[in-house]
Design goal:
Blueprint: E1 4-10, H1 15-29, E2 33-38, E3 50-58, E4 61-62, H2 64-72, H3 74-77, E5 82-87, H4 95-99, H5 109-115, E6 119-123, E7 126-127, H6 134-143, E8 148-149, H7 153-161
Parallel strand pairs: 1-2, 1-3, 3-5, 5-6
Antiparallel strand pairs: 3-4, 7-8
Helix pairs in contact: 1-7
């Protein structure tokens, strides 16, 4: 085995967790030791040489658990390669292009600048209308987000194959 990698994630309805699991599967095929865990359950980074953090994005915000993970472990994350993936934009096209220049809420700038992630990438998200509450339905309508599953599994696997 090459190294031990943590894939931590923060999800609302499971879509980001499924992406994290896919990344873990790809890394395991590359003979890496991988733990895929909810960010809130990570207690120690010392066993890991690399960390990947995934978070769902809702209304321009990261999930609270991802923010807490980043702030809690900032001093350790400075010492290892950290990659971050976002899950959220829906609609046709490249998710990075759909986000434009935005990658994180401005309030996270100090910690992002501290940990200096190798990259922050983005994968398409999934919105299921049957699982939304009335407030979420109103927001989705207001911002014009498309309903459906826009995750590109080939793109996710390709990205995971390119991580070192």
């Amino acid at each position: 085995m090459k190294e031990r990698v943590l894939v931590a994630y923060a999800t609302k309805r499971g879509s980001t967790a499924e992406i994290a699991e896919k990344i873990g599967e790809v890394l395991k095929k590359r003979q890496m030791q991988v733990d895929v865990l909810p960010a809130r359950k990570v207690a120690d980074l010392s066993p890991y040489k690399t960390a990947i953090l995934g978070t769902a994005v809702y209304i321009g915000l990261w999930r609270r658990e991802a923010v807490k993970f980043l702030k809690t472990f900032a001093d350790e994350l400075v010492k290892m390669p950290l990659r971050i993936f976002l899950s959220g934009p829906t609609g046709a096209g490249d998710p990075l292009e759909l986000l434009g220049d935005w990658r994180f809420p401005e309030s996270l700038r100090p910690v992002i600048e501290q940990v200096k992630p190798v990259e922050i990438t983005c994968f398409g998200g999934r919105i299921e209308s049957g699982k939304m509450n009335p407030f979420e339905k109103m927001i989705i309508k207001k911002v014009g987000a498309e309903i459906g599953d826009f995750r590109n599994w080939e793109s996710i696997a390709s990205w995971a194959n390119g991580t070192d």
